[in-house]
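Dear H.,

Thanks for agreeing to be a second pair of eyes. The structure we're designing against is below in token form, covering all 234 positions.
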């Protein structure tokens, strides 16, 4: 039996069914690219679809919330550490201005926001602005935490990753996603402390969580759960 089956679907675009040898039950999760389902070995596709139909309406409501909304005039980001807005401009090209602590993207008159090229341009401009802000904002905080807790790292790099908030290599180089700028401050701090903990404990074993609990005043698992529920808005 194949370990991955992809079925076209009118509502979700596609339903992706993966077989996992350790799975004991059928689990379903909505993502931007469709409905993802994990099943035990020997699970028939017909059985999976019966369960999908039973919960389809509820799953679709959840899936709709995962789809980023189209960017348009009036779009705003008001995160504690990053503020941005999209406005109508008086120029014939897109313009980005940094005003105090806020980034403003000015759009030409007559911009067609339904075009994919326009959406891609705006998203790229937002990510560049976040990365620029993150390169100034995050390194001093990481350094302060490292010194406070007696942890060391070699280098820090700000990335554009949407799939990982951060990572730490075996050589103690830390990567941090610029999307951290969208997080509440306490979750941003959690990610930085999580990666610093990896400079001492490279896996996610009991010793790692004990260390991270010490760094977060016993809140490591609570913060981890809260972070998993955070959704990127674009």
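And this is the sequence the design step returned. I haven't edited it by hand at all.
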């Amino acid at each position: 039996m194949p370990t991955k089956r992809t079925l076209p679907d009118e509502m979700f675009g596609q339903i992706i069914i993966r077989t996992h040898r350790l799975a004991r039950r059928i689990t379903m999760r909505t993502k931007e690219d469709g409905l993802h389902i994990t099943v035990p070995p020997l699970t028939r596709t017909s059985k999976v679809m019966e369960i999908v139909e039973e919960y389809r309406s509820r799953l679709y409501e959840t899936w709709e919330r995962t789809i980023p909304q189209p960017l348009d005039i009036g779009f705003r980001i008001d995160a504690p550490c990053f503020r941005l807005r999209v406005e109508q401009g008086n120029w014939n090209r897109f313009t980005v201005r940094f005003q105090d602590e806020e980034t403003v993207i000015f759009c030409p008159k007559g911009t067609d926001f339904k075009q994919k090229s326009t959406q891609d341009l705006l998203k790229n401009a937002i990510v560049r602005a976040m990365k620029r802000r993150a390169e100034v904002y995050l390194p001093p905080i990481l350094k302060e935490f490292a010194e406070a807790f007696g942890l060391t790292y070699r280098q820090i790099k700000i990335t554009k990753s949407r799939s990982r908030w951060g990572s730490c290599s075996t050589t103690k180089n830390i990567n941090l996603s610029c999307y951290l700028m969208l997080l509440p401050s306490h979750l941003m701090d959690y990610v930085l402390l999580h990666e610093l903990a990896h400079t001492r404990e490279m896996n996610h074993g009991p010793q790692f969580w004990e260390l991270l609990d010490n760094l977060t005043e016993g809140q490591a698992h609570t913060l981890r759960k809260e972070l998993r529920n955070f959704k990127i808005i674009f």
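Two observations from my side: Residues 87 and 106 are 5 Å apart (CA to CA). The radius of gyration is 21 Å.

Warmly,
E.
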